[in-house]
Amino acid sequence: MIRKFLLPFLLITTIVTTLSTISFPAEFKSSNINRILSESSIYTEEKEKEVTIKRNLFILLFLMLLTIWFLLLSRLKKDLKKSEDLLILVGRLLTEENCEELEEILVPVISFLKEDTFLIKSLADCYLKEGRFIEAAALYERISEIFRKSGFDVLSDSFKKRAEELLSREFRRG
């Protein structure tokens, strides 16, 4: 504890001793030294207040960023919950073979989620069940391209082959 105050005390003592030995103009005579030292302590107090304010602002900014982070995480969690609900709904509609409702839901969703192969395949399977082979083949082709971009060539080839089979089936039928 004493060491904390020893260095500043020695520094101030040295400054006062040095100032008293140097000849200054009239405004810096020994009678004005007390005023100068008190002003320097005011400056130090002001500096400490400034540092305290900056520290408090930093803490406030950190807490605000932390709050925003948690809000974003909670929103993401809600979005994931909605996503899970969508997947459950799609699975239920596929099981019930309710292709009309599934199409109503998935066509707009797929326009936003262009890379979601599960949803695209679900709609393609629905088209397949309804005998709409050209639409199903187009979606399988789209899935093939997504897998090819991702580097999954085996899966890509599988979906490409499936699309070709559906197209040949459609043209044999027609």
Automatic annotation (TrEMBL):
Protein name per UniProt: Tetratricopeptide repeat-containing protein
Organism taxonomic ancestry: Bacteria, Pseudomonadati, Aquificota, Aquificia, Desulfurobacteriales
Transmembrane segments: 57-73
Keywords annotated in UniProt: Membrane, Transmembrane, Transmembrane helix
Native species: Balnearium lithotrophicum
Superkingdom, taxonomy of origin: Bacteria
